């Protein structure tokens, strides 16, 4: 294989994808290139193609009445990815897949089975969450080949060095499934990177060497990334290691399905209520149709951006068009004030809370329809408080008393929602309040640029850093992983047998390393898939490989999708029990690899891959 | 009797409709001038009534002409109207432009028209800014005194007491607009550009 010419950073987002690229410098002396953003050709309306910087992560399964959904490189396509797919999501929602990425990390469903779109009509051929991600990546591959490579096989995206971003909260199986999608799309030279880290790399790249003036040894950077569909937090510490400044990712948050779309929906709802009330006061009845709801959502987003922007406007006019082709006379009009937006968005999603606040959880009804586990508490700041408290001991404490929370000294914002200065200010004030409770100084905000595209840019910058150009953030796995071993006790009705969690990969295990799991001998039956329970913990930092944990605090260790090892019968009799030990590695790509190694190998270096996330819990 | 009038080219009409639309909307006097002769000049209104049939013939001719153009298409290469239709479709999609112009607005109140204008203005402006980069022809503020050593007739129009040789000195009344760049969406093969907006049927 020829060596790649470009590093390419791909932000495979919940609501949008973006691609940044930079040529790989031929030698060390060349200045570091600045990543550029690819304008991605996509269908934006029926039969209309436009190149845009963002590719909405929506997939539309065309109906026969739509005709072929032609792209410059494929005249007969039967599905759509991008802006037109998103627009069809409002018109014909049953045929559109949204938030495929959130399904990709949903532990209770089989993510390789065709389940999307949920509730689709009979004639729709459903696809799996993995395939949806694959289609988005495929579109990027084709768009790149059309725009940049133009038929030159050397320049094809599959030949370039690609950095693909995933949420920091993605567990081992979601990462694995993401790489599966990438390989299906033809990518070969692949590395995964956590999104908040990518945002930080984008900041580093934008600052050049000047960043060392703003972040010095002892600083703790909190990355707050609130995008369209999800919120993702990470903490990166700058540590002095033998006179050299080292950046280390020390904590990541949970996967929270909460973002800008929730805020727009709330605001649209408020405006609709207001319009209905105004109409009723005037003695009319009012019901909005689909056209009007679409324009209302757009108008609400516009009003939100205006009123949460620089803070000069006190109110925004909202006008939505009448039904059908009638515009005048049917147009509805109302006004939304700054206070209303403030109350709904700033206080609703970013309330000023104290450090002890925690997101509310309520027990879900037993028979809920299988859907995405949306966040139950919309307060982003409460989720943030919970994260900082949970990782209070992530850094060695300098004082005598152990701190109640991880104390950030710098904040870096990312994601479309955080473009609002008002919201940035609110989060910073909230965090300063918590630091005040601990009697320490407030945190300083690091000024980022272009929060929509920073992740893609940062991913490309990281691609250059991996080639020895620029500082790298260390971190390793954000979780420790455990295999559940059921104790051999007599069965008691109504009581689950006790489970011991055997640590197979410690917290912070670095890329490219592997380790044998001592002390955990498992018996596997040849020719039958053996399924083991699998666990992860983002807070147990000190468990070494092979540690057997019998008791843990609630919320400390969470159960993930089970893992499976299927021993081929070759060389052994079917039904035999083969004793194996486990070996874990973190690959160069950034995924966790578990292998079963037989104690008595039949051939040298014999081992079998343990499949992560084989099927759902249900 | 009626002097033969050649139909204006499409782009000119689009521009004209655009300008007149805002002028009617925001300039009450201008609107009144346009509006009054139609209703309150019976003497003049009678005259056009006679050649009603010929007027219809003219309309038909226009239709024929369009048909002729369609027939000529394959010979003349890509028809020049496609880009214009794309722009129109864009303005309709984002700002309901065609809906607005095609609607009879005489009977509606200013408040109703104003509300609709907001929809049209927000959407069309977004579409325009995303696809056409406009910049003023002259950088000076309107009302400023300018001296022009020479006049490029494409860029500057002299008005008022137009005479003599340059350099000309006068007051900048309108800065002018220049499309610095334009990027229209491209249509895929087989797409019927004449459909400015699809009909919608909800199942």
Q: What gap, in angstroms, lies between the N and C termini of chain A?
A: 43 Å
Q: CATH homologous superfamily of the largest domain in chain A, by name? A: ATPase, nucleotide binding domain
- Report the C-alpha radius of gyration of chain B, rounded: 21 Å
Biggest interface, CB < 8 A: A-B, 31 and 29 residues
Q: How many domains, in number, for the residues of chain B?
A: 2
Task: Indicate the topology.
The complex is a heterodimer of chains A (618) and B (203).
Chain A: E1 6-12, E2 16-23, E3 36-37, E4 40-45, E5 48-52, E6 55-56, E7 59-61, E8 79-81, H1 83-91, E9 96-97, H2 100-104, H3 129-149, E10 161-166, H4 172-184, E11 189-194, H5 195-207, H6 211-214, E12 220-226, E13 231-241, E14 244-252, H7 260-281, H8 290-307, E15 315-320, E16 332-337, H9 338-349, H10 380-390, E17 410-414, H11 421-437, E18 444-446, H12 454-466, E19 473-474, E20 480-486, E21 499-505, E22 514-516, E23 522-525, E24 529-537, E25 548-549, E26 558-566, E27 577-586, E28 592-598, E29 608-610
Parallel strand pairs in A: 1-10, 10-11, 12-17, 14-19, 17-18
Antiparallel strand pairs in A: 1-2, 2-3, 2-6, 4-5, 7-8, 7-9, 12-13, 13-14, 15-16, 20-21, 20-24, 21-25, 22-27, 23-27, 24-26, 27-28, 28-29
Chain B: H1 10-26, H2 28-40, H3 42-49, H4 52-76, H5 81-95, H6 97-102, H7 110-131, E1 132-136, E2 145-148, E3 168-171, E4 177-182, E5 186-187
Antiparallel strand pairs in B: 1-4, 2-3
């Amino acid at each position: 294989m020829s060596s790649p010419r470009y590093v390419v950073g791909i932000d495979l987002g919940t609501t949008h994808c973006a691609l940044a690229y930079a040529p790989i410098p031929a030698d060390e002396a060349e200045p570091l290139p600045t990543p550029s953003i690819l304008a991605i050709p996509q269908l934006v309306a029926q039969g209309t193609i436009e190149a845009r910087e963002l590719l909405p992560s929506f997939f539309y399964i065309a109906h026969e009445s739509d005709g072929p959904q032609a792209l410059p490189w494929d005249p007969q396509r039967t599905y759509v990815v991008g802006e037109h797919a998103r627009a069809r999501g409002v018109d014909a929602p049953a045929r559109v897949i949204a938030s495929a990425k959130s399904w990709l990390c949903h532990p209770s469903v089989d993510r390789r089975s065709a389940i999307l779109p949920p509730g689709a009509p009979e004639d729709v051929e459903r696809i799996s969450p993995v395939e949806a991600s694959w289609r988005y990546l495929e579109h990027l591959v084709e768009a790149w080949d059309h725009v940049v490579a133009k038929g030159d096989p050397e320049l094809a995206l599959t030949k370039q060095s690609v950095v693909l971003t995933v949420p920091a909260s993605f567990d081992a199986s979601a990462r694995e499934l993401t790489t599966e999608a990438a390989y299906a799309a033809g990518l070969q030279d692949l590395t995964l990177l956590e999104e908040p880290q990518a945002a930080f790399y984008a900041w580093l790249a934008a600052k050049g060497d000047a960043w060392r003036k703003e972040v010095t040894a002892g600083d703790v950077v909190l990355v707050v990334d609130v995008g369209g569909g999800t919120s993702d937090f990470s903490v990166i510490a700058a540590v002095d290691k033998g006179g050299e400044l080292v950046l280390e990712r020390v904590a990541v948050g949970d996967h929270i399905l909460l973002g800008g779309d929730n805020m727009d929906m709330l605001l649209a709802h408020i405006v609709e209520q207001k319009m209905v009330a105004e109409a009723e006061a005037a003695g009319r009845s009012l019901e909005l149709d689909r056209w009007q709801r679409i324009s209302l959502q757009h108008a609400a987003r516009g009003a939100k951006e205006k009123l949460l922007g620089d803070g000069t406007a006190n109110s925004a006019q909202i006008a939505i068009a009448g039904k059908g082709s009638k515009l005048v006379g049917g147009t509805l009009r109302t006004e939304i004030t700054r206070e209303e937006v403030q109350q709904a968005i700033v206080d609703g999603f970013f309330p000023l809370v104290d450090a002890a606040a925690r997101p509310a959880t309520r027990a879900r009804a037993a028979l809920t329809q299988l859907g995405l586990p949306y966040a139950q508490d919309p307060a982003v700041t409460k989720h943030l408080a919970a994260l900082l408290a949970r990782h209070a001991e992530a850094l060695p404490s300098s004082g005598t008393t152990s701190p109640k929370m991880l104390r950030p000294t710098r904040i870096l914002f990312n994601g479309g929602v955080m473009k609002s200065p008002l919201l940035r200010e609110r989060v910073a004030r909230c965090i300063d309040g918590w630091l005040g409770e601990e009697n320490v100084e407030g945190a300083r905000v690091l000024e980022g640029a272009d929060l929509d595209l920073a992740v893609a840019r940062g991913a490309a910058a990281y691609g250059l850093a991996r080639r020895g150009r620029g500082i790298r953030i260390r971190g390793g796995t954000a979780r420790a992983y455990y295999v559940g071993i059921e104790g051999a006790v007599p069965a008691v009705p109504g009581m689950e047998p006790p489970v011991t969690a055997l640590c197979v990969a410690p917290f912070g295990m670095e890329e490219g390393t592997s380790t044998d799991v001592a002390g955990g001998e498992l018996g596997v039956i040849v020719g039958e898939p053996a399924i083991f329970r699998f666990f992860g913990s983002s807070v147990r930092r000190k468990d070494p490989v092979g540690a057997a944990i019998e008791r843990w605090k609630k919320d400390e260790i969470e159960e993930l999708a089970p893992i499976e090892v299927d021993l081929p019968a070759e060389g052994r009799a079917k039904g035999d029990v083969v004793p194996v030990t486990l070996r874990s590695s973190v690959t160069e790509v950034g995924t966790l690899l578990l292998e079963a190694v037989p104690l008595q190998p039949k051939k040298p270096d014999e081992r079998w891959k343990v499949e992560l996330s084989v099927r759902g819990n249900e | 009797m009626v002097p033969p009038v050649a139909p204006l080219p499409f782009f000119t009409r689009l521009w004209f409709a655009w300008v007149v639309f805002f002028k009617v909307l925001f300039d009450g006097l201008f609107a009144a001038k346009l509006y009054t002769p139609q209703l309150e000049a019976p003497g003049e209104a009678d005259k056009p009534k006679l050649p009603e049939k010929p007027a219809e013939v003219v309309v038909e001719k226009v239709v024929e002409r369009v048909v002729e153009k369609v027939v000529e298409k394959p010979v003349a290469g890509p028809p020049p109207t496609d880009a214009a239709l794309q722009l129109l479709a864009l303005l309709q999609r984002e700002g309901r432009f065609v809906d607005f112009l095609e609607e009879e607005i005489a009977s509606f109140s200013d408040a109703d028209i104003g509300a609709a204008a907001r929809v049209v203005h927000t959407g069309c402006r977004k579409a325009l800014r995303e696809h056409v980069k406009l910049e003023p022809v002259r950088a000076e503020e309107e009302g400023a005194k300018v001296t022009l050593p020479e006049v490029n007739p494409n860029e500057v129009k002299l008005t008022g007491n137009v005479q003599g040789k340059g350099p000309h000195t006068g007051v900048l009344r309108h800065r002018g607009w220049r499309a610095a760049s334009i990027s229209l969406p491209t249509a895929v093969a087989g797409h019927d550009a004449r459909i400015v907006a699809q009909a919608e049927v909800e199942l």
